[in-house]
Each structure stands twice: as structure tokens, then as C-alpha cells.
Amino acid sequence: MRKTKRITISDIASLAGVSKATASLVLNGRGKELRVAQETRERVLSVAQQHHYQPSIHARLLRDSRSHTLGLVVPEITNYGFAVFSYELETLCREAGLQLLISCTDENPGQEAVVVSNLVARQVDGIIVASSMLNDADYLKLSEQLPVVLFDRHMSDTTLPLVMTDSVSPTAELVARVAGKYADEFYFLGGQPRLSPTKDRLEGFCKGLEQAGVELRPEWIIHGNYHPSSGYEMFATLCARLGRPPKALFVAACGLLEGVLRYMSQHNLLDSDIYLASFDDHYLYDSLSVRIDTIQQDCRQLAGDCFEMITQLVDNQEPTPHQRRLPASIQWRHS
User: Fold this and answer.
1) Strand order across the beta sheet in which 221-223 lies
2) Number of H helices, E strands in the chain
3) Pick from 88, 260, 277: which is nearest to 167 by CA?
4) pTM, rounded to two decimals
């Protein structure tokens, strides 16, 4: 089996017929400044292009004391919201000449600790994380070594830099507007109750019922996890218990709604009279026969603020404000 060999500056110098020092000056963009002849510069660059030469990132790291790499830690990359956020953040990094390394935790704190350690070992300049941890102790300690920005989730009264969407206010507004029509039956399907997105969206749901003058019944609140299969199972169990679909349902995330819609499709319920609402929007919802009111996060702004904060911290600047809660919009599809 043929062993590949990465081309080096020494190889480029030999092929171009110049010294290694001259080749290094040209390839580092200092040839003209230090008066290397134009013909020599062009020859070195031509040879480098022909042989697909790329400078060593390790050499750049030693020279700059930075890796020009950021780490992103998310619970699940297939989650639509995290996927869009990752795309927007990667675009910003690429345009700035930075590499983004993405790791997934599967909502497992133990796995999260491992992937964060791996990113630190790869000498990333900073980490952006949607954490599954219950407290910020590990990240407070880590922030003494490198910048850390939390997003999407908060941990109690953390003092770490944070960017997230306000989910309480828009959820309350949506539920308050429609709850009066479904005062006798309005269910909430959420993820793990220990996670801040679940707590915040449930708080908004309860506030919305209160504003509409609807008394919450304990059996209306159902928890699982944020995988689509959990949404499917919770909705299937609810339909079996009621002997029919519920009259109204608020789903705490796009992934859970995916499971609900799969059950409804399999059981010919897409034309039923159920009122559906969800946190997180998806462009495909405009193409469905069933109407779904949604709360839409601005993933581009979320990524932009995270990028701004982490790069400021890497440059030893203090972002202001260092904790940001962004507004969300309601997409009304029911008449």
C-alpha cells in the first residue's frame, strides 16, 4: 500500500530552486516586503499551487499562540434548531478564517465532559456550549483557561457569558391568545424537566393559561426527552388514554413535534380538529395540511451574538452586555 507524504516548505524550496528561508518568506506573504524578486515569488507560488501546499496549522499556532479554531458543543446536531445555528456559526467562522469543531453530547453530562476535554486538548481558542449540566462549576473553572460562552440554556444564576432566546414571554403570549377556546383541555409535551428550555417553556405555558383565566390541571403536563421518538411515544400514550387526540397541544420543541406528526400521519389524524402549537419553527410547516402556530427563534442573530462574544473574549475584550436574551416571533397559521 503506497504511503502518502505531505509536501513541506523544504520540498517547495527544492522544486523552485530557492532556499528554504526564501520559500518561507514568500509562502508567509512577506516576499515583496523583504524584496524577494517578483520572478522568484511567482515561481515559488506556482510550485506551491501545483502541489496543493498548505502551511502547517501547528506552525501557525506556535507563531500566533492561537489555533484559530473554535469549539461548539450541542446536545444533538440533527435537531433542526441546533443544525441551523451550527450552519450560521460555521459560516461566520469560515468568513473570518476560523475553523469550527462541532461535538455532540446526546444530552449526557458525562459525554459532555469528555467532548469538552477533547476540544481543550485540541487547543481551541474558545468554546460555545449548549450545556446539559445542572450547574456551571465546571465551566467557571474552564473559563479561567479559555473563553466560554453558554447559549440556548442557562444554569441557575450563572455569571458566565450567555446568549439565549427568551422563551417565556412569547410562549405566554401564544397560549394566552388561544387557551380560552380550549379551557377544558390543553396539554403540554416537554423534554427533560431538569433542563432550562423545558422549565422556561413550561413557565410560559402556565403564565399563558393564567392570563386567559384557565386553571391548569396537573395531568396536562407531560415530560419525556427531546428526541422525536419521545414525542411519538408521549402523544401515542395520550391518545390511548383519551381514546382520541387531545383538543389542544403545545409542544416544547421541533423534534418532539416531529414525533407527534409522525403518529398523526400513521393514524390518519392530520385532518383532525386538534389545535397544535410548538416552540421552534420549520419552513416545512407552511406546506403541511395541518396548521401549526409556532414560536420562531432568530438562529442567525443567536449565532451572530455568540460569535461576537466569543471572538471579543478571545481578543481579551469584555462583551457588553455579557448576557443577552433575544426576542422570538410568533408565526400564526391558525385563523
Assistant:
1) 221-223, 187-190, 248-251, 275-279, 292-296, 329-331
2) 12, 12
3) 277
4) 0.81
